[in-house]
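Please, structure for the following, as tokens.
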Amino acid sequence: RYRYPTISTYSRDILPGGDMPEEFVLVEGSTISFMVSRDFYDKFMGLALCVVFSVDNGEKEILFDIVPHVNGQRRNRLSGSLGSFDSDHMWIQYLKPNVLWGMLEGAVDFLEFDEDRLRFSLTLSILGGTMKKFGYVLRCKQIDDDLKVVLEDNQLVDPASIYEMKFEEFFYKFLPRQKKGLECQREESKRLMEESECQEECAREKLKQQMEEMNASDSSDNETD
């Protein structure tokens, strides 16, 4: 229904080699699919997909196309380029649920479907290379025991795919190359803050000095009078 030309490179890792980390749940074919209840949707914070692709006959540009559906209804189509490669690589991409399945990147409205459980799916295609492996994991808030029982009993979601982690913890685990970037950004923010505080302190000292000079000048004028 809606198409977005690119997705964030900030939440992406591309690594040489063809070994998918064992934490990812391997998918048969090119489609990820699972059921989402209202309660689980409130806990569902993001999805990380992992793709191992190969390239034959020299360097080629690798293009991707992601088509998400909610109960068979197409949502926010995502496409773009990963760059040019001449060997096997692994692509890991973190995506928020609303970017994939929300109407105009808003929250999914269960009332629109008048159902308590919806099937979330996405189909991925790779152009320029061959997709050899495809897997995913889900990032969630802390899930209480009752909801875990419901998920398991009704086989809504593969329990192995769920990671109850805060964003930074999840990011560091599944997008390791981005860790350095985050740390650099944090250090740069800290440096800029300290620099700003130093400039403010210097400005206050300068203003204080000017006020003292003005007071001294006023006192001198009064004595002259």
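Residues 2-174 form one domain. The longest strand covers residues 44-54.
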